[in-house]
Design a protein that fits this description.
- The structure is a single chain.
- This protein has helices spanning 2-5, 7-11, 22-29, 40-49, 51-65, 75-94, 103-126, 132-137, 144-170, 182-206, 210-223, 240-248, 250-262, 276-297.
- It is mostly helical and 305 residues long.
- Helix 7 packs antiparallel against helix 9.
Length: 305
Amino acid sequence: MSTLSDPLSLSAPRGADAGLTPQQLVAKYGLTVSGRRPGLPQYVKQLWARRHFIVSFATARLVAQYSTAKLGQVWQVVTPLLNCVVYFLVFGLILGNKSIPNYVPWLCIGVFIFQFIQSAVQSGTRSISDNLGLIRALHFPRACLPIAFTIIQLQQLLISMVVLVGIVLATGIMPSLSWLLILPTLVLLCIFNTGVALVMARIGAKTSDMAQLMPFILRTWMYLSGVFYSIEGNIQTWPKWIQLIADVNPASVYMDLIRFAFDPSHFNREGLPPHVWMVATAWALIAGLFGFVYFWKAEEQYGRG
């Protein structure tokens, strides 16, 4: 009767384990905390083991994203093109931006590249908070989600790049060996975007208002990054510290590399600044490594509370 009346006795260890403390039981059976954060090398191995899941998840989400639209996947190309048309009308015709040769492909490159950065950051910010059901139902490295959403944006960019090549060719720019520089630039940009998406995923998981604030931050970043105008032609009179910030702005750096790859003649007078490749590589390494470690540090917290 005393046993039935004492709830604690129902869960108390019996037999050979009778009298052992919880700490002793953990040591005896090698028990671990459910959902405990693995070490960094083990976490990397878990992510690599789920690489097929990441790609399949990204592809499925990309297809589902436009499943209800009549034009379907065509919107992946139409959306950035419409943005280019609007920006060209405002900055190319109304404001008369005539200082940049081959302004149409120059503008399209800026719009497409910044759209990739913007979409990766926005989707990364919501990647945890919008998928709590999946996180709580399945056990997998949570970094799979922001990485998968970055892959979604990369797939969209690659489709847009096909259209961009057509625009470049239509304006009389012919293929050259410099086009080979597009690939390493996109690799560095993907690493940078993934790192930033991981950082924003952790912040967005704890601060839901961040998803509402990000569009304003990204819009400001876009206007300061030379998407529509040449930064080099406008910063000579700015204070030195602002010029330094403009020179190392990652969005501007990656756009300059893609623009140079497509049309080196645009940089003939000044040449591509020698620091650009170094800055692009540094941004990719800093954002990628810091973002990954920063996200991994909070692995146990995602989906709880």
